[in-house]
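User: Structure with heme C, tokens only please.
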Amino acid sequence: MKTIKSIFTVLAVAVLAISVMSMVSAQPKKGKAWEVPAKYKDMKNAVKTSAASIEAGAALYKKNCASCHGKTGLGDGTKAKMLETFPGDFSSAGFQGQTDGTLFYQTKMGRDEMPKYDKKIEDVDIWNMLNYIRSLKK
Ligand code: HEC
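Assistant:
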């Protein structure tokens, strides 16, 4: 009776350990810091923010970005679970603290799982989307 009990205990601990491990490894990794060329980093937003720009940006964001980044930019879009890298939390101070030019570069040039929108979306519309993304700040 005692042996059966201890076998069960060992099994229970093993099952628990395996499930905890798989939960941890299922977490997407955080992307490393971006290296942004100086030419982009200090770039100023070419589109002054306004209700019209935010509205245009929101529509484009919904169509092109929300599947991964989530409707409100929390990184919880429907495709997010399949990503290896966490796409970022657009409402966070850390994200919002980056320069306009940095966000422009990340969107235009992409990296790994983040698609490149150069040639797909015009610069003026990237700025419109960034005006929308700026409005997601907590
Ligand atoms: C297929 C999924 C996917 C789509 C669609 C997508 N992204 Fe991303 N995005 C990512 C991932 C993954 C990262 C993190 C990449 C890394 O760190 O290497 C990322 C990173 C970013 C970053 C940098 C985040 C940070 O923390 O600094 C910005 C800005 C960004 N994306 C904007 C956009 C915009 C704007 C669109 C739509 C035009 C878009 N993304 C569409 C997956 C996506």
